Structures are given as C-alpha cells and as structure tokens.
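testing teh design pipeline on a random one, pls ignore if ur not involved
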C-alpha cells in the first residue's frame, strides 16, 4: 500500500463537514459540522444510532456522495474540489467497499475466485497477475478450499469473506465497510472482525467499519461515536503493562470530542442522570471545567 499520509500526519481529514439533502420542499441535515481525523493504517469503527449520519459519512469518504460544505481530504486528494474524472479514478483505485447486503458485494453466477478476479480484469491486470492475486486474497480470508463455489453455495459469513477479498484485491489503501456483520450470527460476525484485524496488520490498509453494534470496541483500535450528525465520543484502545513482560491487559480510554468551534456533546446517560436541560451552570477550575444543572446555586445544591 502506498504511503499517502498527508503532511500534518493524518490520512483522512474531515473538518466542519455538512451534508444537507433536499427532498421536495424539505431539507434534511445528515451531517452538522462533523470533524474526524484518521491516521494511515488505522483500524477503526464509527458507531451510532440509525439516522446519526454514519453511512452518509462513509459514502462521502468513498466518493459516492459529495458534502454540502466543509473539508474532506483523503491522502493527497481533496474530495470537495475534485473533478468527476479524478473522483472516478479515486473510487476505482483507492477505495474498497464491503456492504451489509451480500447481494450488493458479489455477482451470483460467478464463483468466489471469479468474483475476486473480475475487478482486476476491469483494471487491466494481466491474466497471470490477477489469478495469483485472487488466490492470495482468498487464502488470506481462509477460503482457498471454497474458491470454486458460487455465492449460493456459501454461508453468509463465507460470502462476506469473499466480499472482503474482492474489496482488497486491487490493493486499495482504504477499505470502507458498511454494517458488514449486520446480517450474520455472532460467531460469523466475530470471525469477520478478526479477518479485518489480520488484514489490517498484513497489508497496512486503513479500515473504517460503520456499525450500530457497540460490542465492536474490543476488535478495533478506536471507536468514534456519531450523534446527530457530529462526532461526540471516542474510545481509544491501549495496553496496560504489569511488572512482568507477559502481564498486560487491554484498556480503553473514553473522550468527549470538542469540535472546531468549541462544541461538545455530553453522553446521553450523563445528561439524563443529572437532569441537564436548557441552561446549565459551568465553572472554570484550575485544570478542568465543572458542569451541573441550573437549578442549584452551587455544585452541592445541583446534585
């Protein structure tokens, strides 16, 4: 995978991104000043409720939709001010897609091997190179023994593994997966997430998984939560090491995201527990701020 990390150290930069859909006389705001930074070779997830804007963001990053306003940069490409020709080239060469519906990923009358080989044929790869690459990718997802089966002879989990092989066959630096485990049982879903992890390490591809399943936290390096069209929370995976070298545990740090104009979204459970509504009181401490309900004159009365 080519090194396309931008000068400021991030592969993907989204700043104050808006997306407004116009339906007849109505305007639907899907993204409301969203900010996001992604490092090259990162394995991350974007989670959020239905309608939060996560799939809209994925479509913009994949060049399938255009933002209404803001900055979107992937590698050295400015996806806001890009020509149609360059955008088409970006979609063909720089991005791989995996969708929730297996029927959208695979051609039903082709075998697994032929499905993986097809995009390489369209890109003009030689027969020898594309056959070698198709075999390599099917082996990487654990389906060498099933390469001559059509999708209807494969389980749902196996179909998604073929879809991942198809998405990565042309060596894109970015893989976007929209609810890739949404139609799978828990065992198959875990297997798919493990494959994403192994491919991220083996090929150095940047992987962004969109899902509503918060259990994905333990399978990725970072989870970004989108709420009401903005990034609201981040959970970052880390390793705590003990006195012995083998004594280590996985830990997660959670952060509230402060956007470019100083806005933040408190977690819903905090708001509900404290009864925060309308105006709230804010106090500047030496190294932090304190927030409590307006009804109290001080923090003790506000509890």
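output:
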């Amino acid at each position: 995978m080519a090194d396309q990390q931008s000068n400021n150290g991030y592969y993907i930069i989204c700043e104050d991104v808006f997306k407004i859909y116009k339906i007849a006389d109505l305007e639907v705001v899907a993204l409301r000043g969203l900010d996001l930074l992604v490092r090259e070779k990162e394995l991350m997830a974007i989670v959020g409720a239905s309608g939060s804007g996560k799939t809209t963001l994925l479509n913009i990053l994949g060049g399938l939709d255009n933002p209404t306003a803001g900055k979107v940069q992937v590698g050295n490409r400015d996806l806001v001010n890009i020509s149609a020709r360059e955008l088409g080239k970006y979609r063909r060469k720089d991005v791989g897609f995996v969708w929730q519906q297996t029927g959208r990923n695979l051609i039903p009358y082709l075998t697994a091997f032929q499905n993986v080989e097809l995009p390489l044929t369209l890109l003009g790869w030689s027969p020898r190179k594309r056959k070698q690459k198709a075999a390599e990718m099917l082996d990487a997802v654990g389906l060498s023994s099933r390469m001559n089966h059509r999708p209807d002879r494969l389980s749902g989990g196996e179909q998604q593994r073929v879809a991942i092989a198809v998405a990565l066959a042309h060596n894109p630096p970015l893989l976007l997966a929209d609810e890739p485990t949404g139609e799978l049982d828990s065992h198959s879903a875990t297997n798919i997430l493990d494959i994403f992890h192994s491919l991220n390490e083996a090929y150095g591809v940047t992987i962004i998984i969109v899902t509503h399943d918060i259990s994905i936290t333990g399978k990725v390096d970072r989870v970004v939560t989108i709420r009401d069209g903005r990034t609201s929370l981040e959970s970052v995976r880390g390793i705590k090491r003990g006195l012995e070298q083998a004594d280590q545990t996985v830990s997660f740090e959670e952060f509230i995201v402060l956007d470019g104009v100083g806005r933040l979204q408190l977690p819903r459970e905090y708001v509900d527990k404290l009864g925060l509504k309308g105006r709230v009181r804010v106090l500047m401490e030496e190294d932090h701020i304190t927030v409590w309900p307006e009804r109290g004159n001080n923090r003790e009365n506000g509890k």
